[in-house]
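Researcher: I'd like a structural prediction for the single chain below. Treat it as a standalone chain; there are no partners to consider.
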Amino acid sequence: MATSSRWSRYAATKYSLVVLWLSGCGVLFWRTYRYYKYEPSFYYVHQILGSCLCLSRASAAVLNLTCGMAVLPVCRVTVTTLRHFNAKMKLRTMRMLLDCCKGFHICCAYLIVGTSMVHFSAHMWNARNFSMYYNHVIRDVNAALYQDQDPLWILLQTVPGVTGFLMMILLSLIVSSSVTNIRNVNYDLFWYCHRLFVLFYVLLLVHALKGPIRKQINVNSHTPGCPIKNITSGNMTLLPETRQEPIPEAEYNFGTACDDNPRFTQIGCYSWLWVSGPLLVYVCDTVYRFTRRLTQVKLVAVKNHPCDVVELQLERPGFAAKPGQFILLQCPRISTFEWHPFSLTMCPVSERPSFSVHIRARGDWSEKLRKLLLNSHDRLENEAVENMRHCLRVDGPFCSPMEDVRKYRVLLCIAGGIGVTPFISLLTAIRDSKKWTRKLHRVCLVWMCREYESFGCFQELIESCHAQCWQDNRPDLFDIRFHCTGHALTRHQNDFVKKRLCHGRPNWKDIFSHMKTIHKRFDTGVFCCGPRGLVTDVKYWCHELSSQPNRFFFYHESY
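Model: Treating it as a single chain, here is the predicted structure.
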């Protein structure tokens, strides 16, 4: 079946925005390149450096812009506020932009790496040209102290040279630790290396101070290219041509005034003009989050579940959240700096102020947290345990695409392993609040796990939600399918799970076709959380089988 026109428009809008962004960067690059190529103020330095002058300055402009934009997607409070605002305005383009914040951040990262390499290489070549084409007539335009000076020393004797080398080292650490394989193996390395961005931006703000490139300041009294007046003899000396250079365009031609020798100054530092606005937003966002983190969090209960999953029930004054949102969790006893995202599995309500998260021990931090909490779990009267009740800090809640579950009457929720947690808060809301069930027509949950024991983590909640739907005389409201992709136990299986258990991976074509057949009047919101391969498969079939009158709208969880 052909892809729906809705998806075509969505994809066209998404990629059109990417093309628009890249085109804007391309226009900025080209205009800056032409400015430094034809501006009379840079005529003499252009004679020495050639096109590498234009490349270095054009790449610097794009680099400054991209560095400023890269911090905006990680302003979590700002993004959450915009999402709440857009929930009332219902602007599809803004919703798409908010959903793609992580993708835009990665796009900016690629662009930063590319422009940094161009900028670094161009300046290395500039140092070589400063050394080889030393201007003996107009000495003030030179960055080298003498002919054939070591190009590396030319760079190291300037602020841009030293900060440039340091920034390239920092960027290499940040980028290399962000590779998917490295991030999955050692998340701590990724997290700590990313904190180096603070030093990177500090160096960026001072990078262009006292740079080697000189700008002529008396173009009106000395037209670039006219004879140079020898100060001692009063004779006129023509500057020897080292290469063929372009003649300044007519709009920059101020005549042939040769009343004075050229005078030069440094071009100055303008990086702050590009990054100060986004950095101000980021600083305000960070300060607000820091003050919010100071609110004390109480650990109410700890529960151990199969497959190394631990449940934490927490309380914090004034904490309000919606199903689908997530929080950042920190344990200072393990690490003072690390914050890890976890989806809420239970949101606070007026009758119950606590909220909960489920954490699967898959890394160093989560394993240490699990052992730390479970070791004191059985000693409830111990003073050390009482101190443990305030050992955690919470930042959030923050928005995610899963919040859009209330927009649809039919929901298809697909989870892989512990990726079911974003949907558990929805099931809790369905069980505890009838206002959530009024609009919903059907909720179908497909949950895949390798181990059969993993289904036991939320078995009690799922059964209670199913029973509540029957009690409310809406037995068709909630449907669940368990898929065990590994070895399934043949003994001690729960009857509720056993009746709904399938072996192997789901047949997505059959599932989507079935949803399309039985829900002909409503659009279906498809929400997915799990491994990348699962997200890719679900996204493909969602868009492949989406068509009028009942369409599939795809969302996936991404921190």
